[in-house]
Amino acid sequence: MYSILRPSDRIKLMVQLESGFPNHFRYLVIVTCIGKQQTEESCILGFDIVKNEITIGLILPIWTDLNISLDGDGGFKLTSHDRCYIFKPVSVQALWTAYQSLHKVTKQARHYNYTVNNNSTHSWLEYYRHRDIQSNQCYINEWNQMEDILSHRSDSSHIYRFLSSDEEIFRTRIYIKLKEIMLQVNLDEVTPKFLREQLENIFQICLSSYKQYIDDIMLEILAQMDKATMILPYLYLGSEWNASNLEELKANNIGYVLNVSREIDNFFPEHFKYLNVRVHDNDDANLLKEWEKTFRFINEAKINNLCCLVHCKMGISRSASTVLAYLMKENNHSLADALEHVKKRRSCINPNGGFRNQLIIYEGILAANKTFRNKLAITSINVPSTSVQS
């Protein structure tokens, strides 16, 4: 796939899209390069792959006017220069990744004021308009296909019409059930349509009229799952995404990273101090024996006026359990109080059964230690002092 790119161009993102043709694979690719103004410029290329042949069916420069919105049916819509394009990624995670990345490059285009009529930028795209690498017309048509507008702007009165109390209750039920489903499935393998069908099976009704609402809250839940959560002023709980996001780490004053996973690498060892707790997210994993070490590591960040990010894959089970253990010791919280504190800030946390049992044991250990210290203090107070007369 890289053979079709110029040597100076770089792929920033590549996600697979749904295709209406058999044996045809489509990819939305964000490509960047340093332009004539010595600033980074971006574009979207639509790659078509048929029988191992790669061609380009879409070339879309990222201008300041690019607008990104959900289409209400598991995809998103891009509008630029009076043209509209519909993209449907093959999974929820792909949709979320593309959605975030497009917002990021659009923000950059606005920062550098890349306007449509600015002839000094994006001249490098002429290379990709070469006829020899253009896709078959039928595939080009698929990239440019239009459809009836089924979704509305987020500020449309159609979307935010007055809701009856019954409607509000039902939307709340949808939100709760959708979050439960998303916490149970592999988001790399399921589509937004699959999630909606699961909801329809649960409620036994057609939810077509709720497509936009379901898409909106799906992104809200994903955002919460992906955004690092401040638990204490110096302690953040997050996911693999947060651990790999250098800009966010620096913005949050992170100096220490506690990696509670076996499968995730330390992304920036030259920038941060790392502690690794290599465990899988299963009931048999032993986190209890690690919590004294993780407690000291987090407190080291606090003493040095830096922040610590505690993360695993999703910021739900392993890292959440470790943060709960820290709060129980540092703030003398009960397990119930620690859970309440963290869930208020990151409601998606859900330690597995094994970790919950270990937290209960840890609560008992902390209580026993506290009782012992109290008895020791009382004993020292009651010991009579002796004086030696000369």
Task: Characterise the protein shown here.
Belongs to the protein-tyrosine phosphatase family. It is found in: Cytoplasm, Cytoskeleton. There is one protein chain. This protein is of the alpha/beta class. The protein has three domains: 2-143, Pleckstrin-homology domain (PH domain)/Phosphotyrosine-binding domain (PTB) (PH-domain like, Roll); 165-226; 229-376, Protein tyrosine phosphatase superfamily (Protein-Tyrosine Phosphatase, Chain A, Alpha-Beta Complex). The chain is 39% helix and 19% strand. It contains eleven helices and twelve strands. Strand 5 (67-70) and strand 6 form a beta hairpin. Helix 3 packs across helix 4 and helix 3 (165-184) crosses helix 5 (211-226). The longest helix is centred in the C-terminal third of the chain and has 30 residues, at 353-382.
CATH class of the largest domain: Alpha Beta
In the CATH classification, which architecture of the largest domain applies? Alpha-Beta Complex
Strand-residue fraction? 15-25%
Helix and strand run: EEEEEEEHHHHHEEHHEEHEHHH
CATH superfamily of the largest domain: Protein tyrosine phosphatase superfamily
Question: Could you give the distance between the termini?
Answer: 94 Å
Class derived from helix and strand content: alpha/beta
Q: Any idea what the radius of gyration is? A: 26 Å
Outline type: globular
Neighbour order of strands in the largest sheet? 8-9-12-10-11
Average of pLDDT: 88
**CATH structural fold name of the largest domain:** Protein-Tyrosine Phosphatase, Chain A
Q: How many structural units, i.e. domains?
A: 3
Q: What is the oligomeric state here?
A: single chain
